[in-house]
Amino acid sequence: MGCQGVGVNLVKLEEYNILVIDENPDRAAIVERGLVESGYARVARIGTSHNLVERIQALAPDIIIIDLENPDRDTLEQMFQVSRAIARPIAMFVDQSDSTMIHEAISAGVSAYVVDGLRQDRIRPIVEMAISRFNVFDQLRRERDEAQAKLNERKLIERAKGILMKEKGLSEEDSYALLRKNAMKQNRKIYEIAQSVITAFQLEF
Amino acid sequence: MADKVRLGFVPLVDCAIPVVARAMGFAEQENIELELVREMSWAAIRDKLSYGVYEAAHLLAGIPLAARLGLGGVPVQHIVVPMALGRGGNAITVSTRLYQRMLEADPSAMHGPRGQSARALKKVIDEDRAAGRPVMSFATVFPFSSHNYELRYWMAAAGIDPDKDVNIGVIAPPRMFDSLRNGWVDGYCVGEPWNQRAVFHGDGVIVALKEDIWPRSPEKVLGVREDWVNSNPETVSALVRALVRAAEWADEPGNRAELAQLLSEDANVGAPFEVLKASLSGKPVLRPGEAPTEIPDRHVFYRYTATFPWLSQGSWVGTQMKRWGQVPADTDLNNVVRQVYRPDLYRVAVKDLDVAVPKHDWRVEGINDAEDRSFVGPDSFLDNTIFDPEKVI
């Protein structure tokens, strides 16, 4: 317990060079922040670059976190094979017995390359942090997409109401009630009815 | 209820077989609900297959062998191959600048058989070395790809050491074309449409086709997990049948224009129709601005046993892995090939169909006038060697 223990721990964590490779700069930033806040001081990140091999050689990472679908992985794996390109061999998910973590990583879209010989118990928290940050990013993106979709639905309804008010001489309230009534009758969403109204009026002109 | 099969593929002309199986109803006829997912990297597709995101995948022939051997720093995976997915349409394309240099360095090699065009490259390399210039860069699509082995075969036959005289790196197929265009690489070996595309844009020249190196060289295969095969043998059979039927459809010359249209969709290959059609109709343009060249066997999906998982072809891939130091010299390759390539699954699947299967799973490759020539198609290596899998050490 106490400060001494924490201090020792931090020194150990700082030993690692971690490299985050991601085409999505927002997600890379979220992962980087998570790692830095957990005490890993030496975190670098790069997007896509054609001189990937040179950049990785210069950074000499102990651990590379890269999004699973990134086409640069094909390039990386070749690089790890050719001994002259990088000094130390790197393996992915060194400990196969940890299949829970591997599955979590795959489903979150995270892959990792690790310098051979690093202890699994010290890699685990880093990969777990990446997994949780990828999941957070995914959640944020989903919420943003949903909010955007909602906004678009509202815009459609507003436009349809405007059309009905202008063309049918209805009040705003009656226009909305008409849309809602039709939606209920046809078992559809209000914005879908709104879309039909807009389409129908576009057709006439 | 239909069996659901998720299959990952990379946008290349040879994804045609699964795409056709779904679009033309062959999967449905076998009671399979085939879901196709487009992937941009071989590593991603391999991992998603290995860890159960997909049941099946369009894979490079070398990937299941490399996975069984745990090569490339990736844990051992038991992926098996119940069928091949045609012979692909690989080619070696160089930048227009390098092409001009090759033409000047050795005009006779460039006007002779395409398989020998690397002789001109050798002269360019020698010129560069004498002038103290840095070595040139070439790209293939994956360490365990037929592209890597074909490019190296072509170079080595002309006296080029692919590990010393050039840099060979890896770039995922959809990024190849931009890399050549931007001058990051001087040449590459990749499947279509990425060669034809470079020619149409005036950025590259095709200097050799895979059929100039070895027409029967294996290309893509269907990869499935061994445990999935063991617990779903009937689904595997149905999937193989659907894909064999799709291959037959795709091979029909009368269907090639429709196939080009289908593949041009963004969800499939997503390349221009004209580029795909030129290649699929067997009339590729090899040099920018020139008339097409007649190459009727440019894309073979079904004929010549193109869907049969020949053990001898797997053995050839393994031999190339050994040749280039990817596997330890004492590996018993043919034993690994027997575990991974599963012609038994293919034979069971097609036994009630009108599909011709070879008598044996192995054959001596590279004898162009062999008795089975009309059945297996043209078969000769560019250096006229013969590959006897029994003599593999």
Automatic annotation (TrEMBL), chain B:
InterPro entries (alphabetical): NrtA/CpmA_ABC-bd_dom (IPR044527)
GO cellular component, one term: endomembrane system
Superkingdom, natural source: Bacteria
A Pfam family the protein falls into: NMT1_2
Subcellular location: Endomembrane system
Transmembrane segments: none
SUPFAM superfamilies: Periplasmic binding protein-like II (SSF53850)
UniProt entry keywords in alphabetical sequence: Cell inner membrane, Cell membrane, Membrane, Transport
Protein name per its UniProtKB record: Nitrate transporter
Origin species: Thalassospira profundimaris
